[in-house]
């Protein structure tokens, strides 16, 4: 196959990147599963934005404080200042967000935020945003969407990316040559026993980067979400009980139904407190009380959470629910600059697979969707600018064709062996770091 831009991943970052690219470019988007099985669709709480200039300093400080001041200040500045433009784009595409009676955007608050600055759509904001982007991408004649098509490696020579090796739905292997390749392949949840992520998100970008000596940044920075619905079955994807629930007043109790913590602590600190309480009580979970939230707010703002709890046998209007921390988000990843360029030429990385330094050591709630969209947009803009500059090496197309025609498919043929190799590379990258949260509860090591 030949294309101008290959994007691996159909979450919000990959889709928004495709929408921002020139319409005269052929864009191929591949995804490991179906088009909607990505973590962008799962995001519940909302998306931060700079609602007014007077909130800039507070927004900046909240992000830095949550990240233990390890954040890249320039990246944080870019994210915050670009947020109004991204929201305008989303609204123009048809995304629906909660509104006040006067038609203005309504804002909610989550843990570690000093004020309300989060736009939302019920408790399925990620689904609203990503489905809107997907609908817009599907309208474009220059974009081809390929489901159940897996990126198994990249085509590389002299630290320059020329495309990828892919596995098609029928299991056959093929190559795709591309002027630019974008990894939007998501996080690392599939490596963990307990995670809110889809199980097929197994840190592929980390593994491929490690194989090709592409620079990583903070691969041990893995965020644990403090409140997911407790299940006895480790193969289940952990259902997230949104940060917004605690922002609206939900309480956490120990086994004796006594409140033991400030529920609005940053996620890493709250997870630590919950783990300590579970150890003290010798329990596998703590209790979360949603009865402190007005019933109408629960029904209107959190309908899917209410329904999931009902399906699991709990009536949130009458009783507490069992919750436990689980792996949730990957702050580290492939190191990228402010234009989402990796250390390999013509290879961009966006979304959860990338590390641009925005989140530091711990992500502030509802910054993930925003960060993904802002830096996907910058990647698209940079590709367009590089193309205008004719920045490709001489004979690039000949080199790409040569690489594609001389691939040895043997190392990729055994799917299980390749999966184990990549699993090892990804987990090794994470566990070599010093952050204890990054080493917890691997499904396989």
What keyword list fits this structure?
Flavocytochrome C3, Chain A, domain 1; 2 domains; alpha/beta; 445 residues; 4-stranded antiparallel β-sheet; single chain
Q: Uncertain regions: pLDDT < 50 for 5+ in a row?
A: 438-445
Average pLDDT, all residues: 94
CATH superfamily of the largest domain: FAD/NAD(P)-binding domain
Question: What is the H/E order?
Answer: EHEEHHEHEEEEHEEHEHEHHEEEEHHHH
Structural class by helix and strand composition:
alpha/beta
Large-scale geometry? globular
Fold-level CATH name of the largest domain: FAD/NAD(P)-binding domain
Task: Tell me the strand percentage band.
Answer: 15-25%
Gap between N and C termini = 35 Å
The total of helices stands at 13
Largest sheet: number of strands, sense, barrel closure? 7 strands, mixed
The CATH C-level name of the largest domain is Alpha Beta
Q: Specify Rg, calculated over alpha carbons.
A: 21 Å
Helix content: 25-40%
Number of strand elements: 16
Number of domains: 2
What is the CATH architecture assignment of the largest domain? 3-Layer(bba) Sandwich
């Amino acid at each position: 196959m030949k294309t101008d831009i290959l994007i691996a991943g159909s979450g919000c970052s990959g889709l928004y990147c495709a929408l921002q690219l020139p319409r005269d470019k052929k864009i191929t988007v591949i995804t490991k599963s179906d088009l909607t099985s990505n973590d962008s669709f799962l995001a519940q709480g909302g998306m931060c934005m700079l609602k007014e200039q007077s909130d800039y300093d507070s927004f900046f400080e909240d992000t830095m404080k949550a990240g233990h001041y390890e954040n890249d200040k320039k990246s944080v500045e870019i994210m915050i200042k670009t947020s109004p433009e991204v929201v305008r784009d989303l609204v123009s595409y048809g995304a629906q967000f909660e509104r006040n009676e006067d038609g203005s955007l309504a804002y909610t608050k989550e843990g570690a935020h000093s004020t309300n600055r989060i736009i939302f759509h019920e408790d399925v904001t990620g689904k609203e945003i990503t489905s809107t982007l997907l609908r817009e991408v599907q309208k474009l004649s220059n974009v081809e969407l390929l489901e159940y098509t897996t990126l198994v490696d990249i085509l590389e020579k002299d630290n320059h990316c020329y495309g990828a090796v892919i596995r098609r739905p029928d299991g056959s292997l093929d190559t795709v040559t591309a002027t630019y390749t974008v990894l939007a392949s998501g996080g690392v949840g599939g490596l963990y026993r307990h995670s809110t992520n889809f199980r097929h998100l197994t840190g592929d970008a980390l593994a491929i980067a490690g194989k090709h000596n592409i620079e990583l940044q903070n691969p041990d920075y893995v965020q644990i979400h403090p409140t997911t619905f407790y299940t006895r079955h480790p193969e289940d994807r952990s259902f997230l009980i949104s940060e917004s629930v605690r922002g609206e007043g939900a309480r956490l109790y120990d086994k004796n139904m006594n409140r033991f913590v400030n529920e609005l602590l940053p996620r890493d600190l709250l997870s630590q407190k919950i783990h300590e309480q579970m150890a003290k009580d010798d329990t596998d979970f703590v209790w979360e009380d949603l009865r402190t939230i007005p019933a109408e707010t629960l029904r209107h703002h959190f309908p899917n959470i209410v329904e999931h709890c009902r399906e699991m046998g709990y009536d949130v209007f009458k009783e507490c629910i069992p919750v436990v921390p689980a792996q949730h988000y990957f702050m580290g990843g492939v190191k990228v600059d402010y234009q989402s360029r990796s250390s390999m030429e013509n290879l961009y990385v966006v979304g959860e697979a990338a590390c641009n330094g925005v989140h530091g050591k711990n992500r502030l709630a509802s910054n993930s969707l925003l960060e993904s969209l802002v830096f996907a947009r910058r990647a698209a803009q940079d590709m367009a600018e590089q193309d205008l500059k004719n920045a490709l090496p001489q004979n690039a197309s000949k080199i790409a064709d040569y690489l594609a025609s001389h691939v040895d498919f043997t190392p990729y043929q055994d799917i299980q062996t390749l999966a184990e190799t990549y699993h090892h590379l990804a987990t090794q990258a994470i566990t070599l770091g010093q952050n204890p949260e990054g080493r917890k509860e691997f499904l396989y090591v």
